[in-house]
Amino acid sequence: MKEQEIPTPDGGKLALYSYGLPDAPGERRIILIGGAFLTALIYRPFSMALSKGLGEDWAVDVYDRRGRGNSSEQPADYSMATEISDVRTIMGTTGARNILGHSLGGSVALNAVQEFSGTSLEPDKLAVYDAALNIDGSVDTAWLDGFAESVNAGNVGHALARLKKGMQPGTAMAKLPEPVLAGLMALVSHTKVNRLFKELMPSGVGELKAAYDEAEHARDFSVLPANTHFMAGGKSPEYYRVTAERLHAAVPGSTFELSPKGFHGSIPAAVSELVAGISEYFKG
């Protein structure tokens, strides 16, 4: 693995980790954009598995987005434009010609490639899994303000409960009354994973609002590359599938794949079937 600190135009820095062949050419490099509350380190098993699946002449570049890992905090004027600028910076540094986005990172990838359409930055291939994008009102955002209030008040249990209800509706835990779920979340908030959630919650508020606050229209993404590959997990919350299907219908020539056994965390968990499928898409 190769680790670098990449300066950004606004005076910040991005921590970049590269797996596979360090000097792989751009057409055999994939930028992996991670989801909310997740660091590049969490994607290490997947990045290693994907680089192995692609072959020894490929590289996978994953970076810590703003407010996590060794990258700079979110700037005061943080927005989706910040994320798009950071994708541009990483592409410029690595020369990568392929992009893979997971969850909120899928939203970043789609918005970035939408802006890059028709320019030299438009990637050769783009794939997203469970993209967290509010397409034509597919996401109920009523919980966001309450989540932000809980984070600002330092109430971890209630923040985790509202996040669970908002991001995973329909699950057994999300159906629990909020006070009960908040108490349960407070009990488990001391685990290693939930301590990381707690650290990343302030940046999570900003990025979730950037991705969800305004409903976008599927037709606006019709400029994406014709070979864009939309993926969703069969065991993920339903709105990820709905979003992927709407985008697939709007992007001529795109493909859609539902992974029957896939769940929202299948990417960082490096599920072998998903790794194999993604490798085939980028190599094909």
Written overview of the protein:
With 284 residues, the chain is an alpha/beta fold. It has two domains: 2-136 and 215-283, 3-Layer(aba) Sandwich (Rossmann fold), CATH 3.40.50.1820; 144-212, no CATH class. Helices cover 41% and strands 15% of the residues. It contains nine helices and eight strands. The protein has an eight-stranded mixed beta sheet, sandwiched between helices. Strand 5, helix 3 (104-116) and strand 6 form a beta-alpha-beta unit. Helix 1 (44-54) packs across helix 9 (272-283) and helix 4 (144-152) runs antiparallel to helix 5 (156-167). The longest helix has 21 residues, at 192-212. The two termini are 25 Å apart.
Q: Would you kindly provide a brief summary of this structure?
A:
This protein has 284 residues and is an alpha/beta fold. The chain has two domains: 2-136 and 215-283, Alpha/Beta hydrolase fold, catalytic domain (Rossmann fold), CATH 3.40.50; 144-212, no CATH class. The protein is built from nine helices and eight strands.
